[in-house]
Amino acid sequence: MFRWYEEASICYVYLSDAIHPHDQSFSHCRWFTRGWTLQELIAPNHVHFFDRTWTFLGSRISLSSTLSDITGIDENLMTRGHEDRKSCASEINSMSSYRCQYCAAIARDLRILLNTLSVAQRMKWASRRATTRLEDTAYCLMGLFDVNMPLLYGEGEKAFYRLQAEIIKESNDHSILAFRSLQSDYTGYSPMLASHPSFFQDDCRKEWMPNATSEIMSTSGDVLSIDLYICSLNPSRRRHIGIPDCMMSNDYLSRPALLWKLRTRA
């Protein structure tokens, strides 16, 4: 589906619960809360929004600031590099060949733009969205991460674990581990991989987290292989902190920490 939208010239979004054509604060609209509509917003070259009376509200370019505030998606991804929002948005076919005839911006490949954003940052876009079927919380994100896997309805939250395993096969971005578990017990320990996109909704995930450049991660069954810096907290209780190779903001020393308890092999 993502590729289908990506190859579309334009996508028309009908907001049935947008009432006031001159009120651009339509964050209450249900369209912004659904999992599958995320790709409808990001993938097409152009997106035009209409209210319940089919009154034109604006395009993704002209509304980029508002849409970024609502969704948390980087504004540069909304505009695809266009600088003159009013002129560029006034013409559907503003991209003649590869250069915009209004602002002279060179068309930026969507995949290149997405790959400049960390896994955690992209996961955050889906963290407050819902789907009717639990498995679709994973399936609706496959295109966003450019991965493929079989659709197995009935597998429940296993779908999201499989999605992350596929992402790890294609990416070495440690930020996939930088989530705040909603299932941690009183000890603070959490699973290695998130069970739902909502685990990435922490405000700190808004910050830039560059892709990792260390050794390749891999998964095999329930085992995750990864090279990390380990800091011992309490050796007698085998409590340690793992430091993933990703940064908060642009500060190399500002990193998330993973609380682990090492187990001895039987």
TrEMBL record:
Matching PANTHER family: HET DOMAIN-CONTAINING PROTEIN
Protein name: Heterokaryon incompatibility domain-containing protein
Organism: Decorospora gaudefroyi
